[in-house]
Design brief:
six-stranded antiparallel beta sheet; six-stranded mixed beta sheet; Lipoxygenase-1
Length: 197
């Protein structure tokens, strides 16, 4: 049974029989708040949210090559983290973007993977997370297809242009998930990444 997490809650990731997970899918989703249609007004731009993963060593980003996002879909050094592609509008049900992680094959030097979402060209387009609703991150066991946990971000994030959704981290050889839900005013992936250098 999937666990619904609260902000700041941590959960150990394991199978029902207690075995360690091998591969997980991290699903991130959001919906655009319905906006009223104004007669003769230009159609508002779609809100393009971009999910990224920061692969950290000793809790820090050591290289730009450790950022997996729409412009770098596979972590070249390990091939263990893959972004499944960019969703430009967030329309439709379920996950809007997905990132897979091969926990079993990931070298032990990588001890944390941070999952973030930013609005593409947020300032230029006059967009923020106050225009987003039903945002979530969920972890799925890829072997069984079973959802292990889900964190729904339910606060009001008006004025915020990016979000640190959560992180997978390895503590004493055990992978855990931390539901973070920290909004920021970072305008792009580079600004978000600087928080971890």
């Amino acid at each position: 049974m999937s666990v619904n997490l609260a902000k700041g809650q941590k959960v150990e990731l394991k199978k029902d029989n207690g075995a360690q997970l091998k591969r997980v899918l991290v699903g991130l989703g959001w919906d655009e708040v319905k906006r009223p249609i104004k007669l003769f007004a230009p159609k508002p731009l779609d809100i393009d949210c971009d999910a990224s993963a920061f692969l950290c060593r000793d809790g820090k980003l050591k290289s730009n090559n450790d950022v997996v996002y729409y412009g770098n879909l596979t972590h070249a050094a390990t091939r263990c983290v893959r972004h499944m592609g960019d969703n430009l509008t967030g329309k439709g049900d379920g996950d809007d973007e997905q990132i897979t992680v091969d926990l079993a094959a990931l070298p032990s030097e990588y001890d944390k993977i941070v999952f973030v979402v930013n609005i593409y060209q947020a300032r230029q387009r006059g967009q923020d997370f106050g225009m987003i609703q039903n945002a979530f991150i969920r972890i799925v066991d890829l072997e069984s297809g079973k959802e292990l946990c889900k964190y729904n971000l339910s606060e009001n994030y008006s004025g915020m242009t990016a979000m640190i959704f959560g992180e997978l981290y390895n503590k004493s050889g055990v992978w855990k998930f931390n539901a973070i839900g920290q909004p920021t005013k970072d305008n792009d992936i580079s600004a978000l990444a600087k928080r971890y250098y």
